[in-house]
Amino acid sequence: MMKYILIILTLALSANVNAQSDMQHTPDGVSYRFFTHNTGNRIKVDDVLTFDIIQKTDKDSVLMSSYTSGNKAHIQVADPKGITDPVEGNLMQILMLATVNDSLLVKFPTDSIFKGHEDQRPPFFPKGSDLNFVIKIDRVQSLTEAIAEMKAAEATDAAKYIAGHKLALKTTASGLKYVITQQSLKQKPLKGDTLLVNYTGRTLDDKIFDSSIESVAKAANLNQPGRTYEPIQFVVGTGGVIPGWDEGLLLLNEGEKATLVIPSALAYGDKGAGDDIKPYSTLVFDVELVKIKPGKDNLSKKQGVDEMPSNISATEAGASKGSTTKTTRLRSAPSLKGKIIEELAINTKLYILPDKSVGGFCKAIDVKTKKTGWVYKGAVKLTEKTKE
């Protein structure tokens, strides 16, 4: 089939692929010959190879070359016994005879490749011809070594992206990085809620690979035939989306926008997704939590969000509602030396406790988080008395 004409072949080596002497053969009739055969540990299952390759016809016409493309091929060796595809199986069998720095020629009979698919046979592969691979093995790594190297490269690329885009991000325990770019005082979702989310996803080279926003998709020349451009809906916290989304969107209030920088461990991991998302790819999503539809089990939890919190006693029921007028901090003591309990954004709703004022600070409770502490008076605007 035509896929074999392109299989992992983006590399090169100058050699006479017409040389027929000393050819060896697999039981399936695939011929191979080592130009150089070094001593050392032979390649084994799960090793990761980096190699140059040229793909040629019997008449030395180059179909593909890594020297031309500048991209070496990478492949993880699989057990030939578990491979049903004869081309892939034979290639793995032959590679396991090699070691690092070996160079070899592999000749696949096109009659076998196009058996049952003669309509796909190109004219430069007539019956009786071979598809020739000339391979030079540059690196052999264990799977552990290769994964560690790819993870290190991912971390480096992500750091460069963050620095280049001047992103001031918070990092969670899982490694998710995020920044809220548009704030809201509405409620946060709970696991099991249905969320409506607008988003744009991009790779670290700023290539947009998906968007729910029509203008963004068109500007990025995305080919999404039949796509309905509207917020997507999913139940959060149940594994219906990548882990980075499940975690990141639970951090947002309804109506908020954020940028999520999601490492591959919380995205598509070592498999990648499609042509744009390679294995071990950190992804960047601009998201907007448009709407929350409470799950059935969460309805009771959402009641009374703006009611008087239980930690205001009856004697303090005359507390005032207020909100912050600037970004400030809730502290453990009425002093700039007090431990920071939480960061308060502009317009954070507070309950201000009566007669609890010390040295320019007032005692307050965050309406949403119910955390109690001290806030600088100059950053607070009183709005009204609460209902007793």
Estimate what percentage of residues fall within beta strands.
25-35%
Number of domains: 3
Q: Which structural class do the helices and strands define?
A: alpha+beta
The dominant shape is elongated
Task: Give your account of this protein's structure.
By secondary structure, the chain is an alpha+beta fold. It folds into three domains: 2-141, Chitinase A, domain 3; 148-298, Roll (Chitinase A, domain 3); 314-385, SH3 Domains (SH3 type barrels, Roll), CATH 2.30.30. It has six helices and 21 strands. It has helices spanning 66-69, 86-95, 110-113, 143-164, 214-219, 243-249, and strands spanning 24-25, 31-36, 48-56, 62-65, 73-76, 103-109, 130-141, 170-171, 177-182, 194-202, 208-211, 232-235, 257-262, 283-293, 320-324, 328-331, 340-344, 349-358, 361-366, 372-376, 380-385.
Short description:
The protein has 388 residues and is α+β, with helices and mostly antiparallel strands. It is built from 6 helices and 21 strands.
Keywords:
33% strand, 6 helices, SH3 type barrels, 388 residues, seven-stranded antiparallel sheet, 21 strands, elongated, disordered N terminus, Chitinase A, domain 3, alpha+beta, 3 domains
